[in-house]
Write a structure and sequence with these properties.
Blueprint (H helix, E strand, L loop, with lengths): L10 E4 L7 H6 L4 E5 L7 H14 L3 E5 L8 H14 L3 E6 L1 H13 L24 E5 L11 E6 L4 E6 L7 E4 L9 H19 L6 H23 L4 H21 L3 H12 L5 H16 L4 H11 L8 H6 L1 H11 L16 H8 L14 H9 L12
Parallel strand pairs: 1-8, 2-3, 2-4, 4-5, 5-8
Antiparallel strand pairs: 6-7
Helix pairs in contact: 3-4, 5-6, 5-7, 5-9, 6-7, 8-9, 8-13, 9-12, 10-12, 13-14
The chain binds nicotinamide-adenine-dinucleotide.
Nicotinamide-adenine-dinucleotide binds next to helix 4, strand 6, helix 5 and helix 9.
Length: 395
Amino acid sequence: MMPFTYFQPTEIRFGAGRVADTGAAAARFGRRCLIVTVPVFPALGPVLEKVQASLQAAGLAVAHFDGVVPNPTTDVISAGARLAREFKADVVLGLGGGSSLDTAKAVAVEATHDGSCWDYLFFKPAQPTEKTLPVVAVTTTSGTGSHVTQVAVVTNPREKNKSALYHPRIYPRVGIVDPELMVTAPKHVTATTGFDVLAHAFESYINPGGSPYTDMMAVEAMRIVAGRLPAAVANGADLAARTDMAWADTLGGLCIANAGVTLPHGIGMAMSGLYPHVAHGEALACIYPAILRFSWDAALAKFAAFARIFDPALERLDDRAAAERSGDAVEAFLDRIGLRICLRDLRIPENELAALARASLVLPDYKNHPRVAAVDDVHALLMRSVGNGPGASRP
Ligand code: NAD
């Protein structure tokens, strides 16, 4: 076995009703808590009340920043950081999907450092210091795994660029995973976030940065997504399916925090950076079949294992034949969860695909894909994802 390192500092509090732990969890880090959410909407209201009540019962003073937007921008983070400074927050609590949790992490950095969070992206010389505020993450999607990762994804609208802070200091100190908070997620959010879980598990599984530890979690996460995401999409109130998906999401987060992602996430990040109306999981769903068909023979055993999880009939075939069908297997699964979409559905103009292809290779993740793509390969992949009629994404 190859030597490996596995690191995970986040305390995970998992299970129905655990939102009641929020106050006790946050009180460990100070007396003044900034809650970070999207603007309150009917499903969020009661959850926010529970969180506020738990914080107040634990003796914390509370302020609320409600300016988060999906694919959070640098402007949003600056507004949140201003409030954190004015309020003299000791701890930042993200409540919501990945957009709210990532905003909380980036606010924790910008509120305590010079300049903007954009100055602290993973490749820049300045990095978050020990001044970074502690973050508590209460997740409401099963999704990004952000409640257990050192990543905050941020969009800079002026540069039309989506990039990331990536630093151990922004791991949430506590991640609260209460599946009861997820039952209100609409079908499309459930499907897109659930597909993101699959992408995290698969991309860490095929990643050279992976290990036996992350492989074990990745296979389990893929198995759960294959078996349980359709039930969560069909009936959002199915708490057992929500619980299973919340666990798969947590496993996926633990995987990417240690193994990383590959080509699909590079393309997906570029797509939402250029077209902020595109949800992260939508971007992934529309390119996955073409990417699997581009790269299945570069890691036969792993693509075969993936394909068999989604289509057990492939157990009868050898690795090469099963791996070759991985694109078909994921397409059939996307059909089952109502997410068989293409670039045309996302209103991405065909004449802008060359620029999208170039932007897709800016982040280094693509270098960890088993078949390393050149810009022409990405352009061809995108062209094969424009429509989704029979055979559209085949080379
Ligand atoms: P999101 O946070 O943008 O939420 C999507 C929509 O669902 C929002 O309108 C939100 O208000 C709503 N919503 C969330 N929970 C709900 C609930 N329980 N009931 C009803 N509505 C609910 O979506 P997301 O996919 O969780 O996060 C996407 C962001 O996370 C992107 O910016 C993506 O790039 C980033 N991301 C981060 C990491 C990481 O490790 N930090 C990993 C992957 C993706």
